[in-house]
Write a structure and sequence with these properties.
By secondary structure, the chain is mostly beta strands. The protein contains 3 helices and 34 strands.
Length: 654
């Protein structure tokens, strides 16, 4: 009778726990990782869950920030042609290695819900930073369709941004701007003396294909949100749109996209000019990037930024490659790529567009606090929030992959995560279907909490993947127990940056840096349950001392016996108590001594954690512990969650 009763309770309990809380590998029965778009060998496009066009790039504190026209979410496939008039948010992503990109969420820039409510659109953004009154300030310039240039300001490169003017900075009423066909596509430079310069404009008046004279440069005021003079014309031959500005050494490089009128420099290519002054005059030098159609068979408009980062030059540009992969044809939804740019002796060579992308500049330090929204590959996810820290929502079979993580000899991983119904995250290497290092069970509940899972076989530097068995949200992750040996530095916003000089390209004068986005505390380490999946002592795993009668006909001990190794239930099932408790024989997963086998060696006693405030001291049961019911005379409180009755024989803290 007792055996039958035990087996019934055991089966019901296992089914309840597996369904409600997840059970490691067993949670992935019937779960298939969703199909990715970007091959594991490729680093372009830089993100694939959102279309992000017209990249405007800023370097700050050894980190690249890419701002773009937010063309929409890739998951939304019920779309027609992109008409661009719906664009009123600006995507913001950043990276320290040019391979793993952290999504900071779309910045609400224009429209009724945006910072600049006077503007309808926020196209083609570009950003710069400058130290003003001892504080680093960030300036985000954007185009209100083709009708003018606005500017937003923030204390952090990831926002939040505010509108300091309540109106446009440049309009058709601005001197020398009345005959500019398109007042859009801003680019900004902060020179080494602290002076800012704004470049903008485009369009081809009838009969003026060779010399449209529709781009302008203007000196900015010391506050970066006012004009210090009248805009001057840049006579860029065969210009169409897409201003860019760089300073290399003592030479200023103005770059732009050529028009479609079959001129001698080619259609919609990136050309560049040079000058000894940021205001010009500029002299034409050549082209440095063909139309993306030459590389990806997706001919379309061409928009770029050239940037120097960690002693190399790169070109950021957009293509419709992702659009075509997802929708089957080009519909005008563009996504940013990055590739190396050859620069030698003052001349810019021709870059080539690739899916492979650039080499990763440093490994990811797995032992540092890493944000889940920083990844290289993904499928079945979305990013929520906007700012320095965001979260990733995973669906069933959804996953993210981080390139080149230094694993060291990590023995566990801690996630800051939540799941309304409970879920399990599989941690694996090489691909979303690769070798599993371990599993992290996320209890049911709506709030983010730190959850830890064991890892086995972690070593070296590998691509690290996070695969969800069900709906879950993750904010951060961190390897524990010997991880990260020999890894490169953590992303800039995850630690206080070293004080250093600002990069020359598109940056503020050489001044000390303010900290990047404020780091969070590393997740607190949950107390290890001494290999007992259900807690420390007695009953079904209460975290405190065992109750006087644990419901399984064993006399209480004080101190209580340690759980048997890998015993998820606690107790020794109808055997006389031993102190210390014997270790299980033959890897018996249920506790006790291999069902009445002699113990080979004593197990170490587990130390119980301090009782929670307001509880019944060490007598308060822990999460997933028995807390009441027939045959149980212990405490009915729960140190975590509330007591849930499973049936007349069993209850647990949930």
């Amino acid at each position: 009778m007792k055996t039958t009763l035990f087996n019934s309770i055991l089966l019901i309990t296992i089914a309840f726990i597996s369904t409600t809380f997840g059970a490691g590998e067993a949670s992935f029965g019937g779960v298939t990782a969703s199909k990715g778009i970007k091959d594991i060998k490729n680093k372009n496009p830089i993100i694939t869950h959102r279309y992000s066009a017209d990249p405007g790039v800023m370097v700050y504190n050894d980190r690249v920030y890419v701002y773009g026209s937010n063309d929409g979410d890739v998951a939304n496939r019920n779309v027609g042609e992109n008409k661009y008039d719906q664009i009123n948010t600006i995507s913001c992503i950043s990276s320290s290695d040019l391979v793993n990109w952290q999504d900071h969420g779309p910045i609400a820039a224009a429209g009724p819900g945006g910072a600049a409510k006077w503007a309808k659109n926020s196209w083609a953004p570009h950003a710069a930073w400058k130290k003003i009154n001892g504080k680093d300030q960030f300036f985000l310039y954007f185009a209100n369709s083709g009708a003018g240039i606005g500017v937003l300001v923030a204390d952090n490169p990831a926002g939040p941004f505010r509108d300091p003017l309540g109106k446009a900075l440049v309009t058709n009423q601005t001197p020398n701007c009345g005959n500019v066909k398109w007042l859009f596509d801003p680019a900004v430079l902060v020179d080494t003396d602290g002076t800012g310069y704004l470049y903008f404009g485009g369009g081809v008046p009838d009969g003026q294909s060779a010399n449209p004279k529709t781009v302008r440069v203007v000196k900015l005021g010391p506050d970066m949100i006012s004009l210090a003079g009248s805009p001057q014309t840049i006579d860029a031959p065969w210009v169409f749109e897409d201003s860019g500005i760089n300073k290399i050494g003592n030479t200023y490089y103005y770059s732009y996209c050529t028009n479609w009128d079959n001129g001698p420099y080619g259609n919609a290519k990136i050309a560049y000019m040079t000058s000894s002054s940021p205001m010009g005059p500029f002299t034409y030098k050549g082209t440095c990037f063909n139309n993306p159609g030459d590389f990806f068979q997706t001919t379309g408009n061409n928009h770029h930024t050239l940037v120097e980062f960690k002693n190399k030059f790169y070109i950021f540009y957009h293509t419709e490659w992702l659009n075509k992969q997802v929708l089957g044809s080009q519909k005008g939804y563009r996504t940013t790529h990055v590739d190396e740019l050859p620069v030698s002796n003052g001349s810019i060579g021709n870059a080539k567009g690739t899916l492979t992308g650039p080499a990763q500049l440093q490994d990811v330090d797995g032992s540092a606090l890493n944000y889940a929204a920083s990844f290289c590959w993904q499928s079945g996810i979305s990013v929520k929030g906007q700012g320095p820290v965001t979260q990733v929502n995973y669906g069933r079979g959804g996953w993210t992959g981080v390139s080149n993580v230094s694993l060291g000899s990590a023995s566990s991983i801690t996630l800051k995560a939540s799941s309304a119904s409970g879920a399990t995250i599989k941690i694996c290497t090489d691909s979303e279907n690769g070798k599993a290092l371990g599993y992290v069970d996320i209890p049911a509940g709506g709030s983010l909490q730190n959850v830890t899972g064991k890892l086995s076989g972690a070593a070296g530097t590998k691509n690290l993947f996070f695969v969800a068995s069900g709906d879950a949200t993750i904010e951060s992750w961190q390897l524990d127990g010997g991880a990260g040996a020999g890894a490169g530095p953590a992303p800039a916003q995850e630690q206080a940056p070293a004080q250093e000089q600002a990069p020359v390209t598109e940056q503020a004068p050489a001044q000390g840096q303010a900290p990047a986005p404020a780091p969070e505390q590393a997740p607190a380490q949950n107390p290890a349950p001494a290999d007992n999946g259900w807690g420390f002592n007695g009953g079904f795993g209460g975290f405190g001392q065992a109750p006087a009668n644990n419901g399984w006909n064993q006399p209480a001990q004080n101190p209580p016996p340690a759980p048997a190794n890998n015993n998820p239930w606690g107790g020794n099932w109808n055997q006389p108590a031993q102190n210390p408790a014997p270790a299980p024989a033959n890897n018996n997963p249920w506790g006790g001594n291999g069902w009445n086998q002699p113990a080979p060696a004593p197990a170490p006693a587990a130390a119980a954690p301090a009782a929670p405030a307001g509880g019944n001291g060490g007598q308060c049961a822990g999460m997933w512990a028995q807390c009441g019911g027939n045959g149980y005379s212990g405490p009915t409180c729960c140190s975590q969650g509330t007591c849930v009755v499973v049936n007349e024989w069993y209850s647990m803290c949930k």
